[in-house]
Design a protein that fits this description.
Elements (H helix, E strand, L loop, with lengths): L3 E4 L6 E4 L9 H14 L2 E2 L7 H9 L4 E4 L12 E4 L3 H6 L4
Parallel strand pairs: 2-3
Antiparallel strand pairs: 1-2, 4-5
Length: about 100
């Protein structure tokens, strides 16, 4: 795959294309996504089709996740979502502190 990261604004956010998040991504691709996350803080991955399980598997590549129940679920099929939080140190090092 040929990952591309395009800046959205001068201060925050980028669009990442050229990766299929539902696939089992190699460590180099995950490292590239992590580096983009550290640099841009918010990433958008357009045109992705992920099952809830694939979404969780992708999120787990970046650290621990917390299962939460949203106050107003968007989908009847998925009544839970996952929140991934990490400190800037964790993002840069790739390991939880």
């Amino acid at each position: 795959m040929n990952m591309k990261v395009e800046l959205l604004t001068p201060h925050i956010g980028a669009v990442v294309t050229g990766v299929e998040l539902a696939r089992d991504l190699d460590d180099d691709t995950i490292a590239g996504i992590r580096a983009a996350w550290v640099e841009h803080l918010v990433l958008f991955f357009p045109d992705q089709i992920l099952s809830p399980d694939a979404h969780v598997a992708f999120a787990r590549r970046f650290g621990d996740i917390t299962k939460v129940i949203p106050s107003s679920p968007r989908s009847k099929a998925t009544r839970t979502c996952c929140r991934l939080t990490a400190s800037r140190t964790e993002l840069i090092s790739g390991t939880p502190t």
